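Bump. Still looking for DUF3631 domain-containing protein structure tokens.
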Amino acid sequence: MTGNFAPDAPSAPDAPVTFRPPSQTGAPLLEEVRQWFATYICTMTEADLDLLTLWAVHTHVATETYTTPRLLIDSPVPGSGKTTVLEHLSRLCLNAVQMASLSSPALLVRMLDVGMRTILIDEADRSLNPAKEGIAELYAVLNTGYKKGGSRPVLVPVKGGSWEAQEMSTFSPVAMAGNAPQLPDDTRERVIRVLLLPDVLGVVQESDWELIDDPAKELGARIVAWTDEVRDFIRANRPPLPEIVKGRARERWSPLMRVATAAGGRWPEAVRQLAIHDVERIQLEREEGIVQEKPAIALLQHTINIWPEEKNFISTASLIDRLIQNHPKTWGAESAFGKPLTAQRLGKMLVTSFNVHSIRPDREGPRGYSKVSFEKVWRGMGITRAGSDDPLKVTGASGATGASGAETAQLEIPDPLVIPEPIAAFVCTICRSETAFTLQKTDAGMACRKCHGANR
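Sorry for the wait, here they are.
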């Protein structure tokens, strides 16, 4: 086993083995790496130096951390030192390679299949422009390679002069530098960001590689030595993160927390604060309109906010009017779509994203939507009314007390009671269509009004 620490004896034959932390923590080494970055890099905040340090070190144990967050080195203006950061990372990270030196994504995948590399991408605002020809293949590599086991099929020659597809690994740490690059959503949600500023006050030193190349590589070698010592500890331990750090955010920050826990000292708390700030920043940007939610998700939140609590059905026209009136920049003529929301566009979003269909309660009345059809989606997506911290209190199909749909379906409905308001989604026992309105009890069970009339 690698490392200078021993496993604790299991309390039972089948109990998992856990590892004691190394007696010598890596906190002093991480502080030294941080000071190295502080000497040559001007960041927006001091915490960004912690982030650079942890990310550089984690590349040496990415296999043990299972996921590897993409690092975005961002700045508001050119000349802030983004390329300089990549130069330092190339000496401190695991087997770094500049993407500019590779001829194609296929070559990158072949290289990664041989062994782990840290990919460094400069001028990401141009080299990763979504409109660039052939960029989809590179994004596929970047997005699949953030988690251990990620792979892409690559054509390889076989005997007889033919070709066959072979799955090759794409798992690798990636650092991207650019001026606010326009990354796709699925790439951005895997990213943690460091923000640089121009050194207008002259507080950082110039990176004169003729003088500092050897010291940088020596520091990199010490990182290798320490990560080799704690590799098994990092693999065996999954320290907790704050409760609000969930889902994709947890995948971003868990690798750095594992490194920080192995190092000890102030570093675990530093990661906790970085992760909380990251989650809160994304939420604030979403609230301020900087980060745009997908239209279908915004539609869910807006519908629950504008839906009249006492109504179990709302016509399509009324729903659209309410959406436009309350959110004109999203659904009105001012929207990015360039024209007001239409019934066709509304229906397409609801059907394709959530399988919510419009209905016509009255044969001669308007089409619209039942609250029943929205409630399961609201619950499943964790959507609540604005200003409420409580889970969705269901009305209509599940009753004012939040009873489940299954409980509602078991309610006794005396014959020949007609239910004037939609209170549940039932399946007609005759035509098998789902309905949420004007149900009548027959000998065969619950029937829609059409079938009930035909079978009198």
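The longest strand covers residues 151-157.

Edit: fixed formatting.
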